[in-house]
Sequence to fold (340 residues):
Amino acid sequence: MKKQQRMKEVRRKRRIMFTVLAVCIFCLTALLGGIKLKQAYDRKQEEKARIAAEEERRRQQEEEERRKLEERLNVQIDMDIYSEAAIVKDVQNNKVLASKNAEERIYPASMTKILTLLIAVEELSDLEEKVQIPVDEVLAEYERGASMAGFQPGEKVSVKDLLYGLMLPSGAECCTALACRISGSEEAFAEKMNERAKELGMLNSHFVNASGLHEEEHYTTVTDIMILLEQAIKNETFYEVFTTRSYTTAPTAAEPNGITFESTMYDKKSTLEVTDGEILGGKTGFTNAAGQCLASLAMVEGQEYILVTAGADGNHNTEPFHVLDAENIYSQIGAAIQSE
Fold:
């Protein structure tokens, strides 16, 4: 009997022990589950907070970008400048920021070469092709006082060297050689220039020659030159030539080490930095009738701007008033954005 009672007591204690153990396991499982649920909840809350913070950061960034854009588009530019006509445009945002006599007829002088260069890079794909410098035409230009790059009449020069000779030192012989190569004659090339100008939307322009030598019927507006340059810089080869400061050609008949060209913008300036930016490239021009002219491209506060000026009262012996106007206007843009 006692043995049976002891056995019963042992079984009872075992049941109690197993019950306690089961309860402990259950509680521990519940506790661990609760911890996991809490951790999952915390992670979810942290993710919500992270997303909310990211959205707020993005909203503030977009608001700052809108504010800066509004500042850029509403920058006030003082157009009391040397040039008689001018126009400046924010290229990225497609907005004219300021202008002065922008639709008045002007003589473009060597800004003409922008159109000549554009047509050349569109028509001639082989930049290593050799082109002969016309003799009679170039001698006639020389007699008229046209600027020259330094190639000799009758010499054969690569298209690439002609492009840089056209743009940097403003060589008229380069324009004539390319014109004759493309259209057979400068007169026929002028017809192509007028056709291309109309295609680009230059409705108030007429061209008679490829270099910009003065002719009464060779005219444009600063607005039309702006339209031309804005389209031209989309061409990769044009952009590369236009924004180059210095270039050395292959050896020539007169120069066994090649001819080194430097942009005419730097004739009297060692640097073209402006407030929070720099002038990337440009084409100067001058005749007595045109005055000092400049079509330029600048990077200010990380964005591109185009400025075209004409009619500054100066010459090759005076201060470069067209370049001074460019530095002035681009610096006004940079200073206005910085001050906000």
About this structure: The mean pLDDT is 88. The chain has two domains: 1-74, 75-339. The first strand starts at residue 85 and ends at 90. The chain is about 50% helix and 15% strand.
